[in-house]
Amino acid sequence: MNFDSKVAVVTGAASGIGEATAKRLAQYGAKVVIADIDEDGAKRVAAEIAHSGGEAAFRRTDIAREDDVTSLIAFAVSTYGGLHLAHNNAAIGHTPTPLHELDTATFDTVTGIGLRGTFFCMRAEIAHMIGHGGGAIVNTASGAGLKAAAGLHAYVATKHAVVGLTRNAGLDYAPYDIRVNAVAPGPIKTPQMASYPQELQDQWARLIPMGRMGTTEEVADVVTFLLSDAAGFVTGTTLEIDGAYVQSSTQ
Ligand SMILES: NC(=O)c1ccc[n+]([C@@H]2O[C@H](COP(=O)([O-])OP(=O)(O)OC[C@H]3O[C@@H](n4cnc5c(N)ncnc54)[C@H](O)[C@@H]3O)[C@@H](O)[C@H]2O)c1
Hints:
Layout: E1 7-11, H1 16-27, E2 31-36, H2 39-51, E3 55-60, H3 66-80, E4 85-88, H4 104-129, E5 135-140, H5 153-173, E6 178-185, H6 191-194, H7 198-206, H8 216-227, E7 238-241
Helix pairs in contact: 1-2, 1-8, 3-4, 4-5
This protein binds nicotinamide-adenine-dinucleotide (NAD).
The site of nicotinamide-adenine-dinucleotide (NAD) has 29 residues, from helix 1, helix 4 and helix 6.
Keywords: Oxidoreductase
GO molecular function, one term: oxidoreductase activity
Family: Belongs to the short-chain dehydrogenases/reductases (SDR) family.
């Protein structure tokens, strides 16, 4: 994997899956812009990348804000001279709630970040890439983008929509050498996941045919593959990273 001379933006890179991808991309030579609302976390990740000999810069970005996203892409281009790769990863979940009791504010916040925010990022990235020789984009969907998840109506709608946006953009931008793919992680052992009681984690792990949760590095490895030239003929697809979770009948 070689991303020398490539510039990458990773949203939600202050923690979890985004952090792992930012570190992998930097390890393989990319200059990485860490976009997040969590300044402390993002600065820690940028410092750790620099400490390992990589190059990264932090840009505070709320992806739900159109102007923040426009500034993010302008920042990447002015700081590192271009934009070739993007991992649109930031999103939030919500407490499982019956649909008829789901309040509008929660629906708007969850879709506003995970769907509208992903759209804002894709639009700004593609607008740059289309005039500069193409690029590669990976969106973070979820197993919840491919099947139902009880009570998670806003999150499931968001992630299904991310799969749809990915598919459509893959189609429309193939002639411009812009590849757009998504990953659909199953339960992944992020710091937040690891903070739950072990008994609960074991219960979730038993729902996965492989009998364990995935790691953030396992997701980052697939994201970097999809962003790389090794996936040069892959676009519009959503790749499950879930130990056969979606393929199983259990939930
Ligand atoms: N962890 C899992 O099991 C799992 C499974 C499937 C999909 N996902 C998806 O993976 C992605 C990353 O999740 P994670 O588990 O690493 O979570 P995380 O909470 O560890 O990281 C999410 C990051 O996004 C940032 N963020 C939140 N709102 C933002 C906004 N408006 N603008 C910019 N940044 C924002 C947070 O500050 C945080 O740093 C999400 O899209 C999530 O839906 C996670």
